[in-house]
Amino acid sequence: MLHRLSPQTIRILALLVVLLLVILFFSTQVPNYLSGRLFNRVSSSVAIMALIATAQTLVILTRNIDLSIGSVVGFVAFATGSLITDNPDLHWTLLVAFSITLGMFFGMINGFFVAVAKVPAIIVTLGTLALFRSVLVEFSDAKSIVTANLPTWLINFPNTPLLEIGTLQLRASFAVAVAVVLVVHIALSRIRIARKLYAVGSNPEAAEMAGINIGLTVFTAFVLSGALAGLAGFLFLARFGTITVVAGLGFELKSVAAAVVGGVNIFGGSGLVIGALIGAILVDLIDSSLVRWHLVSEFWREAVLGGLILLAVTMDTLVMRSLAVWRTARSNSKEDRRANVQSP
Question: 303-332: per-residue pLDDT in tens?
């Protein structure tokens, strides 16, 4: 049965099993854990995580990484908050467009240095992580965006229920995140231009021989990542309202954790954004559950995320290597049987 499933499908199924086990574990440790409030709480908070995990996935597929994504989210959230505070009658479409465009601008900066200047992505985004955050500190002028100065529609948007089944609610922010993930998934699965990301990450030399512009593809991945980070910044503003210069701090680690735990190969070329979405749900669920589980100190939450990344990469390497050996052995066995049948 397993040999008929793709490695990516196996990863998704394994991830769903792990998600179920985590829920069952915490249900035995935290009083009143299994309730409609759990779904509503996780769905509200995971929307931002899902977007940045998807953004990170697009970059990782090309054998790169974006460590500046948290700074981009924070900068966009603050800048968008400043814009709507000064222009409270601004239409929501313009506000969203501003957030996405600003995120794309930061993505273009990263993409230029990685794709054009050929500087390693980890060096570029480590530098822009600090650079974007420093510019935000100067831009903020020691001020904060406060909820009281934001329009009511913006504050109410994340928790607006689109569908209610008993105590369960499908909230607007989660619906937006899932819609974006599905669009990206369809694009990566069906659209030839989008599939170039896989080609570049799987085998850059072969991709170049096939006529794919590697530099343009990598640049596009960073721009799209910035756009999604910008949208995440808008949702961050809407959900929290009060924005300081440390907004989005630590998101770079969480985005990598969600993508890698979701089965996206850290070495590029394989992975699904659906897996990144489930990884985001798992990371956010563990993060929020540890807060309610008083036996573990809050200071260990980052350590748990780091451990998840290490475990996910190690297990992915071991499982995929074992699966490749098993399939090779099975293929050789078939060829031997076929040769025996054909021999006189």
Answer: 776 777 677 667 666 766 666 676 676 666
